[in-house]
Design the sequence.
């Protein structure tokens, strides 16, 4: 009936989230992608093996670059400023946290990027025939991604 509490669990919606870039603080983004990690696979076969296949084992763990997109605002150049701070091996690496929030704005899941730094920044594309907002993006490299459920 209407107004009764739901008993069956619902999947978590992915549209309510926040990102914090170390000393830069919380920045509102429209879209975040690349929150994945994987292992290289090492294949080995001994020359005297009677099996005509390889043995597979996990190798080094690596994470994808993380892309963050946000609307452009007249008085906000934070992403370009952050990118311009990169100098030959002197960038202050940051811990980046990305949190998926519940209906009460509390974190349900947290992804943490270790030693992240900007590797690419892109301004908006422009098209006189589209009625869309201007969106900029920054791509972060990092040295490891961890995941934690609240």
Sequence:
């Amino acid at each position: 009936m209407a107004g009764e509490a739901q008993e069956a669990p619902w999947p978590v919606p992915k549209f309510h989230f926040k990102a914090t870039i170390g000393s830069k603080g919380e920045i509102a983004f429209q879209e975040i992608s690349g929150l994945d990690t994987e292992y290289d696979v090492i294949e080995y076969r001994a020359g005297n093996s009677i099996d005509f296949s390889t043995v597979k084992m996990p190798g080094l763990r690596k994470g994808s670059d993380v892309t963050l997109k946000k609307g452009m605002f007249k008085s906000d150049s934070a992403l370009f400023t952050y990118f311009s701070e990169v100098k030959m091996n002197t960038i202050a690496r940051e811990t980046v946290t990305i949190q998926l929030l519940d209906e009460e704005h509390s974190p349900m899941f947290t992804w943490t990027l270790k030693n992240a730094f900007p590797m690419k920044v892109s301004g908006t594309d422009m098209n006189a025939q589209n009625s869309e907002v201007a969106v900029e993006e920054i791509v972060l490299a990092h040295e490891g991604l961890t995941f934690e459920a609240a």
